[in-house]
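pinning this so it doesn't scroll away 📌
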Amino acid sequence: MENNNLGYWVWFLFIGGVIGWLAGLIIRGRGFGIIGDIVIGIVGAMFGGWMARVIGIYPGSSIGAFLVALAGAVVLVGLTRLAVRNV
């Protein structure tokens, strides 16, 4: 499957933004702005995927993958806010 088309990347950034925004709402009640939400969503999704593989969870559906990505973003937001608060 070729992932070099514009539609794929627009969708990838949109989902990253939604995941980051939701993680910001869950942890603190607000997001990080559009760019921050996208970055948190994408990095959090990668972190969530890594965490899921480490503990042996392999989501078999798009909803499962979304939930794993959201969980990773929530953990990432929580750790970021904890680190910033303690600096």
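📌 and the second one:
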Amino acid sequence: MLIFDLLISYFIYFIMAIKWKSVYMLGIGGISMSAIAYILHSHNVKIMGSDISYNKQIDNLIKENILEFSKGNNKSFVEKCDAVIYSSAISSDNSDLAYAKKLSKPIFSRAQVLGILTENYKTISIAGSHGKTTCTGIVYQVLSQCYSPMLHIGGVLKNIDSNVNIGSDDLFITEACEFKDNFLSLQNDISVVLNIKPEHLDYFHTLENEFSSYQKFVDNTFDNGTVILNNDDPLCQKLVTKAKRLTFAISNYADLVAKNISQYENGKYMFNAFLNGENLGKVYLSCFGFHNIYNALVAILIGKLKGMSFADIKKGIESFKGIERRFEIIKQTKYCTIIHDYAHHPDEIDANISLCRSLGKKRLVVIFQPHTYTRTHDLYDEFLAVLSKADEVWLLPIYPAREKAIKGVSSFKMKQDLAKLNKNTKYFKNFMQCKQEIIKNYHTNSIFLILGAGDIVELAYIFYDKK
């Protein structure tokens, strides 16, 4: 870490520890921002926040008397706060940010604040292009069998019905987001890299730049710490570190390897864990998907590093209930299954399609809302290739998030190009049209796989069957 960054870090810590009585959080509804709000509140900091829309995270904060909320910008919050914290979704020309600068208010990014919050802990940071939320949840569930760790996660962990846990031990488990190099604000005792794939190319531009950022993330591991890497991932193999290096794999040699893999139930896997050649025992995954074997391997390594018995590690993995919006079964009848997943990258979509095929239904309809124009443009051919594996593809308009439209990039064009591949494809202008089509097809012995990281969750949850 550069000396300048260290000076900034210590300055933030001084401000937080000594002077902050209240903060104003721009983009408070973000899954990470809302988790940070809980953590700051536990340090007796008053929370004010704004967002362009209202969601479950905001509702929970208000119900627990933690948050004073404004829908949209609020100059009075800027005037009253000791510091402003903004998420990556906030544009640089935001009027509240401009007003805060005019008033000379301290202004910090979400990533900077997360970095400071972890400074007095033994930090376990889990990074990767895909899978980090679920992996973070499984690691927490394992460590919570013997410890009371702090948790900051980019999704709602069903075991605790929250995206945060205020722990009493000196462990801090956090999801480490690579977008805009946010994860470089973290100093880690244990750094995990699950995989490195082309992602956030609107920021990184090239895979080489992205890899360079992951190397910097690994470099932020303390020399007496541990780096845990996926030895089945070609780019993870190339990462170097002065810290202790541990590897996990399914196909290649590694310190920890999964063997004797089989499905014990449709979509759910079991395996034997071999650590340095020793058979630790058998693990039954409670969550769907072959890819979760990798997440379980990470949890085993971290549990072992923390001195846990395999019996306790196994109990934690097998008691994991999953993450909301991660292969979440929304509705299930005799003829129809509706599943929602946050997947917005071709690799994630591919994993979800493969998993659906293992469930045994005859017809798979993928309902997809592309996330951001740049990702759709940069990975367009990959999206076409993976979506063509479904029996039908239903498309919704691109969710722009922080971006402006790019000429010639649209879901409707994607529909036309999929049709050229002889794929049965439909396009819907809004959720209501799509909802009606799902209802018309309820009795067709189908899986409806609803995918996307935007507000498509609203479409999925229309059908939600509360247990």
